[in-house]
Amino acid sequence: MDDELNTKLKPLRDRIDAIDAQLIALLNQRAAIALEVGEVKKHYNAPVFRPEREQQVIARLQDMSAGPLAGDHISAIWREIMAASRALEQQVRAAFLGPIGTYSEQAMYEYFGHAIEGLACPSIDEVFRSVEAGSAEFGVVPVENSSEGAVSRTLDLLLQTQLVIGGELALPIHHNLLTQSGGLTGVTRVCAHAQALAQCQRWLSTNAPHLERQAVSSNAEAARLAAADPSVAAIAGDRAAAHYGLQVAYALIQDDPHNRTRFVMIGKDPAGVSGRDQTSLIVSVKNEPGAVFKLLEPLARHGVSMTRFESRPARVGTWEYYFYIDVEGHRDDAPVAAALVELEKKAAFLKILGSYPRAR
């Protein structure tokens, strides 16, 4: 049986080996050209990472493919190819909410590829500070969750910072209950980020109501605590389980099976037009009747679709709000540009957070 199997497999494996040889030669040719691109960018002081260009490359290849590779496969493969080429030009660093093993770290690798150098930060504030100070070229921060809504601290910092949003990623969030033993014997409390506890509250109330719930700075920090104390369980993902040597007591405990968190990539350089973009804004309105309607009317008149509308208190001691708005299109697209000109005249305050490729 083994001889017959090997006989049938050998010619197929020989063909794969021959194709692999062609692929490695072509990839090295591509990398050599990427180095030339890097030299041109250095001469003009242009940024190494251009999210709109990478989005265009992936979209074009997805359209070209007749299968069997699906669009997600092509995106994952070329993200790593481009990340490796980028690292040959210049090592790029991205700050993320640490410690190692968080969903923010996972989002960083899925967006930038594994050739990125990660900088783990103890808080979202420190992610912003690291990019502003130049310790990292980019930051990865959660902005909203499909179950629990906006991440308030990120919204507040986006209002204050001079950094711009250059990209986004919607990451499926799969929560596991992790312990040292893989069971709950002797476990008295469960630790996780406050949002993770909220996303699993129904499961916890039904299946582990005896566990004290404790909010900590991140799910990876919860995993670190569980690795040091057998009486602690952590809610975290597979990456944290592997890094801290924990066992899965219960898998996929999130209340919403389609739970996702949207992350945005912040940096100093604005993204160019990719052809499939989104623009994020913060606005406030004058205190007058119909102010919000007047604010949004230019968007409708210029045919600009609004995909998100979130309000946050202005925190100035009065009943005033900032509105966080996402619209389809780049700020340089004619309809969006025209709407923004009118919007600025009508708004008491307007800040453009960035135009960037939409998550596919």
UniProtKB/TrEMBL annotation:
Q: Which GO terms describe its cellular component?
A: cytoplasm
Q: Can you say where in the cell this protein is located? A: Cytoplasm
InterPro entries to which the protein is assigned, alphabetical: ACT-like_dom_sf (IPR045865), ACT_dom (IPR002912), Chor_mutase/pphenate_deHydtase (IPR008242), Chorismate_II_sf (IPR036263), CM_dom_sf (IPR036979), CM_II_prokaryot (IPR002701), G/b/e-P-prot_chorismate_mutase (IPR010957), Preph_deHydtase (IPR001086)
Q: Looking at the keywords, is Transferase present?
A: no
Q: Which residues form the Prephenate dehydratase domain?
A: 93-268
Q: Which Gene3D superfamilies match?
A: 3.30.70.260, Chorismate mutase, Periplasmic binding protein-like II
The biological pathway it contributes to is: Amino-acid biosynthesis; L-phenylalanine biosynthesis; phenylpyruvate from prephenate: step 1/1; Metabolic intermediate biosynthesis; prephenate biosynthesis; prephenate from chorismate: step 1/1
Q: Which reaction does it catalyse?
A: prephenate + H(+) = 3-phenylpyruvate + CO2 + H2O; chorismate = prephenate
Query: Which stretches make up the ACT domain?
Result: 280-357
Q: List the GO biological process terms.
A: chorismate metabolic process; L-phenylalanine biosynthetic process
Q: Which SUPFAM superfamilies does the entry link to?
A: ACT-like, Chorismate mutase II, Periplasmic binding protein-like II
| Pfam families linked to this entry | ACT, CM_2, PDT
Any idea which UniProt keywords this protein has? Amino-acid biosynthesis, Aromatic amino acid biosynthesis, Cytoplasm, Isomerase, Lyase, Multifunctional enzyme, Phenylalanine biosynthesis
E.C. number: 4.2.1.51, 5.4.99.5
Site (Essential for prephenate dehydratase activity) residue list: T261
Q: Where are the transmembrane segments?
A: none
Q: What is this protein called?
A: Bifunctional chorismate mutase/prephenate dehydratase
Name the species this protein comes from: Trinickia violacea
